[in-house]
């Protein structure tokens, strides 16, 4: 199973305090400084300008999702060097295309934070995943205020991260709309597919040639949990093991043999071809009944836009029942 190599400190972004301040900064000689909001984050207190005209994101999934969903003025973001080999529609594709049309540009490869490129973009605000920004927090803070968001490892809810950035930028109403829309969609699908949800054992399964696995803090599992999904035993195993269960290539049936339907996380069509050729694949009940919906790593982490996309995938999964 593919996983991030980053090691992180567990942190939380819950508990946001916002205070509007105005004062004199260095070099103003008594002139009124730009008013700010004081925001408490997991890595310390920051002061964010009341008017945010430019934002850079560091990781490119949840941070990018939140910034795009809140319609903040994105000027820079990372690019995934492997994305050219991916064939599925990206959950943030349309929103990112609109941001590009407004001037947002790619600054560096994801997981390779380029401080010079960020500084050159001259942002008013930097938003990034906690495990990425913590390593270079002082350097980033010298460029602009930094808001760290939670990650799969630190386990915070996307709703909390959304509200954090919304409070820091004066977009509380927009955040409330996004959360309400997600909740309404969950209720709608729960009502439409009550029987299918109750009777279908589902599994969000990562697969790669080196093995398969389940990570319970990923967005796919969280969204299915919101729907009241009945999970395969691999999810229980992952929870009992602290959030992750990994299986070797020869253990595919052990991982997914009790699942009626699979939300299958396979990044490329080449990998999907390899899986289909695996002699263990036809032994899975979900493969035999064609109750498989494929996604990729771009739904591992995200905010409201990606969460809504995962709900669409879940509907496909249950509608096939």
Tag the structure with descriptive keywords.
single chain; 321 residues; alpha/beta; Rossmann fold; 5-stranded parallel beta sheet; 14 helices; 14 strands; 21% strand
SSE layout and pairings?
Blueprint: E1 18-21, E2 36-41, E3 44-49, E4 55-57, H1 62-69, E5 74-79, H2 93-101, E6 105-109, H3 115-121, E7 125-129, H4 130-133, H5 137-141, E8 146-149, H6 158-169, H7 172-192, H8 194-199, E9 201-208, E10 211-215, H9 219-226, E11 230-231, H10 233-240, E12 244-247, H11 252-256, E13 261-265, H12 269-277, H13 285-288, E14 292-295, H14 304-319
Parallel strand pairs: 4-5, 4-7, 5-6, 7-8, 9-11, 9-13, 13-14
Antiparallel strand pairs: 1-2, 2-3, 9-10, 10-12
- At CATH level 2, the architecture of the largest domain is 3-Layer(aba) Sandwich
* The number of domains: 2
Share of helix, binned: 25-40%
What order do the helices and strands follow? EEEEHEHEHEHHEHHHEEHEHEHEHHEH
Derived from helix and strand composition plus strand pairing, the structural class reads alpha/beta
Can you describe what's shown?
The longest helix has 21 residues, at 172-192. The chain starts with 17 loop residues before the first strand and ends with a helix. It has helices at 62-69, 93-101, 115-121, 130-133, 137-141, 158-169, 172-192, 194-199, 219-226, 233-240, 252-256, 269-277, 285-288, 304-319; strands at 18-21, 36-41, 44-49, 55-57, 74-79, 105-109, 125-129, 146-149, 201-208, 211-215, 230-231, 244-247, 261-265, 292-295. The chain folds into two domains: 50-170, Nitrogenase molybdenum iron protein domain (Rossmann fold, 3-Layer(aba) Sandwich); 189-319, Rossmann fold. The chain contains 14 helices and 14 strands. The strands form three sheets. Strands 9, 10, 11, 12, 13 and 14 form a six-stranded mixed sheet that branches. A five-stranded parallel sheet has the order 6-5-4-7-8, with helices on both faces. A three-stranded antiparallel sheet has the order 1-2-3, covered by helices on one side. Helices cover 38% and strands 21% of the residues. Strand 5, helix 2 (93-101) and strand 6 form a beta-alpha-beta unit. Helix 6 packs antiparallel against helix 7 (172-192) and helix 7 runs parallel beside helix 14. By secondary structure, the protein is of the alpha/beta class.
